[in-house]
Hints:
CATH superfamily: CoaB-like
Shape: globular
Bound molecules: ligand PMT
CATH topology: Rossmann fold
Distance between the termini: 15 Å
Oligomer: single chain
Structural class: alpha/beta
Mean pLDDT: 97
CATH architecture: 3-Layer(aba) Sandwich
Strand content: 25-35%
Order of helices and strands: EEEHEEHEEEHEHEEEH
Radius of gyration: 18 Å
Amino acid sequence: MTFLITAGPTREPIDPVRYLSNHSSGKMGYAIAAAAAKKGHRVILISGPTILNVPSGCDLIPVETAADMSQAVGNWISRVDVAIMAAAVADFRPVEYQTQKIKKTTETDMMTLELIKNPDILAEARSIHGYGGLLVGFAAETENVLHNAREKLNRKKCDLILANDVSQPNEGFNSDQNTITAVYPDKEVELGSHSKTHLGALILELCEDFVRR
Ligand code: PMT
């Protein structure tokens, strides 16, 4: 099968030296990509900036902003059997990019940055691209984890959402460990707390089982 996997953060530039981003390291998405390539699947890995090595056998498409990631996903999604969106896409970007470095002034201690919503790449898979393959999203939550994950499953028209509680120290963003519950339309399955490498293999198995059904 062909897998499309998004991973890592996006960076939304403010001026030539600053950007908005988040703590995603890319480890979760890269672990799934590595597991899929190891099993002989073709993997298109669309990744924001990370320091990770590209897993053997994966085709990397490096991107920077949510708009870049949205375009790359749009180019590929009609050609894949499974799409897994593990990237932490910035929900907002600055309305205007300042071409010169923003200077401090002596007149005020306040600064206001106007932001505008980025495209929701996961939701666009069905709503804009009419994607008919297996669609898997993540939900990074700090409260009401399963309730919020199920709301994302329905709103973004996913087949499966992988819910992680990112309020726990040493779990989720920028760590080697994660705790995941797989949320399906009709049930929930706890994958438990494991290394991201192990969870990558478990998530791959869930996807293979889903497609075989
Ligand atoms: O990269 P690591 O350090 O290994 O950390 C892993 C992780 C915590 C980033 C990963 O497990 C994870 O939860 N990824 C999704 C993070 C996130 O942005 O979640 P969300 O609940 O805000 O978004 C829900 C889903 O919509 C996600 O599949 C996300 O990729 C997608 N999304 C969100 C916003 C947006 N504008 N476009 C999207 O496609």
